[in-house]
Fold this protein.
Amino acid sequence: MDEQDCRGSNSESSGELRIVAPSCVNKALRQRIRTALQEQGPERPGHHWMLYIVVTVAALGGLLYGYDTAVISGAMLFLRARFILNPMMQELTVSASLLGAAVGALGGGRLSDMLGRRRTLLLTASVFAIGALCTALSSHWLMFLGLRLVAGCSIGAIASIVPVYISEVSPSRLRGRLVTAYQLALTIGIALAYWVDLVFTNAGLGWPPMYAVSSIPGAILLLGLFFIPESPRWLASKGHWTEAADVLERLHGPQAIQEWREVRTALRREKRGSWRELFQPGLRMALFVAVGLALFQQFVGINTVIYYAPTIFQYTGFTSASSAIMASGIIGIVNVLSTVVAGVFIDRVGRRTLLLFGSACMTVALILLGAVFMLGPAHSGALALSVLLLYVVAFAISLGPIFWLLSAELFPTHLRSVGASIATCANWIANLVISMTFLSLISSIGKSYTFWLYACMSLLAFLFCWFLVPETRKRSLEQIERYWRNGRRWETTPHTLTTHMKSSDAHWT
């Protein structure tokens, strides 16, 4: 049976999608997977070097996100003089791309369901690369805002799709580490933005080249996307079973058979649904947890540091633009190194454990930061830098990468991009709220109370994770789906599931 016959054999009855994929996988591909499995054995870890190349290319979307959000921190020191910006206009300047990102995140999920993860990334990366160059040529403040809005739409869509794509191409045992590559790329983008800002500041070139540089990684991502495959789970959900199995075999090697079984078992039971299904019993809590993590990731105040780091350091005694940006650059480097640590431990220690530890440390750091500002600028420069480093480390090993990972893990295949896009949209909206209120809060209640407010949010995040966030380490995406549908209970009879899957393998032949 060829691919066209395979698609024709999928039928809908009472809204259900009946999957008859096993008979559609070509004989040569099945034999390759069986041979590899016999040579290595189902219990031994196997993965293919191609997987790491694919993840590296996709993770460049995180680098775009990080650079685009952080470059404003140094550029703002020049933009407020160039366009004569008051505090409210500065907040609008920071927030323009965030508003676009919220819209892009919400639409990106639907678009990727229709076109595929890879094609949608190709489209959005193209828009971003062109928008970055045009932003550097802005001659008026309103023109700058409009272009940042367009570029923000692209970044929002990329931010919602890349973690989903990486989670769908990754085997269960490596998924945490590989999705963390997205957050690592994001932090590299942030650090790169700080140091690029510093170079152009010292060269006296101002803000335009800071934005022009972001088109370079955008072009690299665009080029790389031509050489990576579509998500195998998306292909399977659209009936392209031969292509899906071929991608799994290329990326996972001998372990492709196990991933194939999980995908097939899940898709057999799925219905063609819409985003409304996320509000039904069983998945409603998954959406609540994902959106809650999205909000807390921003409400702990991380992007006040990312967007306003040089401004914060000027509050604490770093008088020149260069010294303030240099201190921000140190923050960026520590952020990258801490994310590397998170990647090492996230599949060993677990998501929930790191979330609890990180949110507790952030609470302490934010309380200390508020106390530091009580001392005044003459005494707070070095102390503020030290406490901010502690805060960034705590964030980078917890809410930073784990929100993106869980937003891509918590939903079933046919709703994963939609669920992730809703969570990402909530994340951008919270980001917008924080960026729009930071300077106003400082003006109205003072620096210390502003950071103590963020400390309260961090404490609430700790409680939220303690009571509601499950540990998904070493769980397949399909097992996580069953956890929600079973009323937040993990299956206690894995042998039964394995037996069922093995018995269904008879259909392969």
Remarks:
- The chain has a mean pLDDT of 79.
- Strands lie at 11-13, 16-18.
- The domain at 49-258+265-495 is CATH 1.20.1250.20 (Growth Hormone; Chain: A;).
- The chain has one domain: 49-258+265-495.
